[in-house]
Design brief:
Elements: H1 3-22, E1 24-27, H2 29-39, H3 41-60, E2 69-79, E3 82-95, H4 100-166, H5 172-207, E4 214-217, H6 229-234, H7 240-261, E5 267-276, E6 279-288, H8 297-345, H9 350-362, H10 368-403
Parallel strand pairs: 1-4
Antiparallel strand pairs: 2-3, 3-5, 5-6
Helix pairs in contact: 2-4, 3-4, 4-5, 4-7, 4-10, 7-8, 8-10, 9-10
């Protein structure tokens, strides 16, 4: 009776471990961008709005704007011959004559194009946010690894300090300073782990991943993105927000056409059958609307103003985007040059200098404050190099996102 729960324990442990493994997700930048295109919440919501816009097109494609009408009149007629029933039945249908249906279809198609562009714009912004969150997560991870090395070195220095103090080579002040240095290194590493959790959580949220998952960033901060300025400017016109403004312009122009159509009369055709005093008659009917008072004045005025406004907005937006792309490309080039110079002039010999300084302290050639000063300078240099890598990667993402390459 007691062996069954015990036998179930390993199974439960395996299930828990399997679930934990399934919730650990490692993503390269390309993986994260691919997931964002398919499952980012903001992208899914924006795509759903496209189907709403299709409803307007269904209505615009209806052949006749107005439904046919049937009117029936019936009543008794009293004559010298007696009482008879008169009957009057009419059927009519109104027809638009100025191309209103084509204008409504054009407006509805422009609405679909606008929502499609809005979905693409939401995807562009989501990809930018995901790429930056991935870079920040990766930067935090590499910073943690660097600080772990700093913590290990501080622990070694503390050990050497304790040993030299035990033989009376240094004072207790140096021991306390070594402990403080180790504590600061450990605190810096723990703080970096907290930052990584925040960035990874942001990446998880942007991708719509399960709340229990653990996200890690894979890859390198040295992105292989070398877009030329001419290529970036060439694709600006295809940026989703500009395509959305083009769709807005087509929609406004379709409203102008509808307003102009209101100045032309519509025609109605119908037939009427009458029966009076036992006599029957069939009469054809023609109805013509007279656009005397309502000639679409309001629609034409607002649509014309909207057309001018959208055209101006499109032109100014494109000029602004091109200016932004030029500035971001220049910033990327400057940051990349700074990173290259830093890597060539500052990074060589870092590990060798660290080892030489530690060895000099062990044999008593330099004091502990001198060692800590050297190590602090080395750590700050490594962190600055890491930060400059992040700056270059961010600049590459920003310029590609601004130009519309990142879609």
């Amino acid at each position: 009776m007691h062996w069954r729960p015990c036998a179930a324990v390993p199974v439960l442990i395996c299930l828990v471990q399997s679930n934990a493994v399934a919730q650990s997700i490692s993503l390269s930048l390309d993986d994260a961008l691919a997931r964002a295109r398919e499952q980012a919440p903001v992208v899914l919501v924006a795509r759903a709005r496209i189907e709403e816009a299709r409803g307007r097109l269904i209505g615009a494609r209806v052949r006749f704007r107005d439904n046919p009408t049937i009117d029936v009149g019936m009543g008794p007629r009293t004559t010298e011959a007696g009482t008879m029933t008169d009957l009057d039945i009419g059927f009519s249908q109104l027809f638009e004559t100025a191309g209103q249906r084509a204008a409504r279809i054009a407006g509805a198609e422009a609405g679909i194009a606008r929502e499609t562009a809005a979905a693409d714009e939401a995807r562009r912004l989501a990809l930018r946010a995901v790429a930056l969150a991935h870079l920040h997560t990766l930067h935090a991870q590499e910073r943690i690894e660097l600080l772990r090395g700093v913590e290990a070195v501080a622990a070694d220095v503390r050990t050497v300090t304790d040993r030299r103090y035990a033989v009376g080579d240094i004072a207790v002040l140096d021991v306390n300073i070594a402990k403080i240095a180790w504590a600061r290194a450990r605190a810096a590493r723990l703080a970096a782990e907290g930052e990584r959790t925040v960035f990874a959580g942001e990446l998880q949220r942007l991708l719509g991943l399960p709340s229990g998952s653990t996200v890690t960033a894979a890859g390198s901060l040295r992105l292989q993105r070398r877009s030329e300025l001419a290529n970036l400017l060439a694709v600006v016109a295809n940026r989703p927000d500009l395509r959305g403004l083009d769709a807005d312009l087509r929609d406004a122009e379709s409203e102008v056409r509808l307003g102009r159509a209101s100045t032309r009369p519509d025609v109605g055709l119908g037939a009427r059958m009458k029966r009076e005093e036992g006599h029957r008659a069939v009469i054809g009917e023609l109805t013509v609307t007279l656009p005397v008072f309502n000639q679409g004045q309001e629609l034409r005025a607002t649509a014309a103003a909207r057309t001018s406004r959208v055209r101006l907005e499109r032109d100014t937006t494109r000029a602004s985007i091109e200016s932004e792309v030029r500035a971001l490309h220049a910033a990327f080039a400057a940051r990349e040059a700074a990173l290259t110079a830093f890597a060539q002039d500052a990074m060589p010999g870092m590990d060798e200098n660290d080892a030489l300084a530690r060895r000099s302290f062990e044999v008593g050639q330099i004091s502990l404050p001198e060692l800590l000063l050297v190590q602090r300078e080395l750590v700050e240099t490594r962190l600055e190099y890491l930060n400059r890598q992040l700056e270059v990667a961010e600049a590459a993402i920003e310029q590609d996102a601004a130009a519309g390459v990142l879609q």
